[in-house]
Design a protein that fits this description.
With 210 residues, this protein is an alpha+beta fold. It contains 4 helices and 11 strands, in the order H-E-E-E-E-H-E-E-E-E-E-E-H-H-E. Strands 1-5-8-11 form a 4-stranded mixed sheet, with helices on one face. Strands 2-3-4 form a 3-stranded antiparallel sheet. A hairpin with a 3-residue loop joins strand 9 (111-112) and strand 10.
Length: 210
């Protein structure tokens, strides 16, 4: 995971509007488990900080984590506004991250053995409702919904409509779950459809090379 994150952070993202990745794995508080051991979430995010990944500085960086779950100083990075080269402003290196966790710190993250995790089910369903091709015909669709509000809808879906079903084990039966949103975004985030001519060429990477 560490090498993959370093690779994607090293790409030239000058022509993209944001970065999004989803990690579905096992985990513990503050760490994720990979095939080669555990990795802290802080280490995973590190290559994307504003002072390390300049082409994503000032742009939303979205991380979705499906997994069971200071004294630092920030000197920041100088940025030049795209529409005003004379307008230089300083942005914290930690700014513009959006972290979406399937559960809150210290709690279990549930999944259905047939349909997969509750959180990813609800996330996929909610994205389809508000961004799918036939969204305007769905009575649940809301126009101009920003992404943090959409994640709040996911929180509602998981919290109200999912519960465990383990009748043979009373301690595990009828349990609930609530996802968590941690936002350092500095502006609202929307995903309007782009004309094909404005779309950047797709970037791909062989995981074997990472």
């Amino acid at each position: 995971m560490a090498e993959a994150m370093k690779y994607f952070a090293s790409l030239n993202d000058s022509d993209v509007d944001c970065f999004l990745t989803a990690v579905l794995t096992h985990g513990d508080e503050g760490v994720l488990f990979g095939t080669d051991g555990k990795m802290s979430i802080d280490r995973l995010l590190l290559p994307f900080k504003g002072n390390k990944c300049l082409t994503l500085a000032g742009k939303p960086k979205i991380f979705i984590f499906q997994a069971c779950r200071g004294d630092k100083l920030d000197r920041g990075v100088d940025l030049v506004q795209a529409d005003d080269e004379s307008g230089v402003y300083r942005l914290p290196s930690e700014a513009d991250f959006l972290l979406a966790y399937s559960t809150i710190p210290g709690f279990y993250s549930w999944r259905n053995t047939d349909n997969g995790s509750w959180y990813i089910q609800a996330l996929a369903k909610t994205i389809h409702v508000h961004y799918g091709e036939n969204r305007e015909t769905d009575p649940r669709w809301e126009a101009n919904m920003d992404f943090v509000k959409l994640l709040t809808r996911v929180n509602f879906e998981v919290s109200y409509f999912y519960k465990s079903n383990v009748p043979t084990n009373p301690e595990l039966d009828q349990q609930k779950q609530v996802p968590s949103i941690v936002s350092m975004l500095t502006r609202d985030l929307y995903f309007p459809a782009k004309p094909p001519a404005l779309l950047p060429p797709p970037q791909s990477a062989s995981m074997e090379s990472l």
